Amino acid sequence: MNEKIRTILQAGILAPSGDNTQPWLLRYKEDKNELEMFIDPKADQSFFNVGQRATYLSLGAVFENILIASRALEIEPEFEIYPHKEVDSQNPVAKIRFKDKTSVSKKGINLYPAIGTRCTNRKPYKKTPLESQEIKALIREAEGIEGAKLSLIVDKALKKKVASLVFKADIIRVERRDLHEFLYSTIRWNQEEINRKRDGMPIRSLEAGFGGDLFLRFCEPWPVMNFFNKIGVGRAVAMHAKKSIMDCGAVGLLTVKGNSPYDFFNAGRALERIWLCATSLGLSIQPVTAITLFFLRVDLEGDRAFSIKHRDILSDIRPKWQSIWADVLKDSRSEALLFRIGKSSSPPTSRAIRKELEAFLI
Ligand SMILES: Cc1cc2nc3c(=O)[nH]c(=O)nc-3n(C[C@H](O)[C@H](O)[C@H](O)COP(=O)(O)O)c2cc1C
Question: Could you tell me the pTM of the whole model?
């Protein structure tokens, strides 16, 4: 593979993924100068990754990075996307042929410099609402992708309503043993582990501070966390997410036409553009999307995987949620991802790294 193609693919794999699981596989055919992209269904086994939708979303983000990087390096990416209706790891999700042409589309190349600096920032953000120019720019990025729409809430009272629903969904998150154990399987505790595994999240990127890191370590065995949940400490953890949403520039909901793998691939394309645009505007983003992924599971598989207590929470919060986002959720659109956005006073303490490109080549 030549250096330009390597640079393009390396830009691709800087995309975000749930808990930095990096659930993609790439086949590059030198003779045709063509790339095929596949999901890696084993990479993200989280309860959150229902029907591999989070995986498809990540692939959409990789795809978008590749298109942007390719055009920025003056190679025209000609592509086909295969609208999988069901999870399919054998057939490619997309194919991209790299063409050396004299005139290359410049679409999105302004976002290229942000690919390397985009990251999740879990630090507190300033309360200053986003400016209308910023809102317009972010919404425009989402609308460039088929079926995608971005809704942003800056109003303080509405943000508070969203935050209190996120809080309730977060209680489910901290009370589920599978989610607790999956989260811990992705935390990287020291530099040696970060460098060796090159996936998951460095503990310091969770921004819990020194005391918070100690607390997290202490809570690793499920019986400890379970005990804490029983005496109400889990609520304090969920409170943290609530506060972070109340104190931010805006809360954003990305929606797509439906909930098929193809819709989520498009959501990933839109998310990446939004995130790169935010990065170039000096804004930080953190997905806070347990709530939408719980709803998605209920829509795709019913609520049988939830305890009675958690079913009750979900059926209590869903109508409230739908009334907040009524404008966009009509016409049976699907929630793809919820995030908070704003100006952070400083960059993240630590950033999640990626595996070497070779690890994804098949
Ligand atoms: C589908 C999806 C869901 C995510 N959900 C959360 C979340 O609920 N909370 C959070 O802090 N980060 C969330 N993230 C961010 C990932 O943890 C992050 O992208 C990954 O660790 C890589 O780090 P980076 O974004 O800094 O490159 C999510 C990312 C994706 C793609």
Answer: 0.97
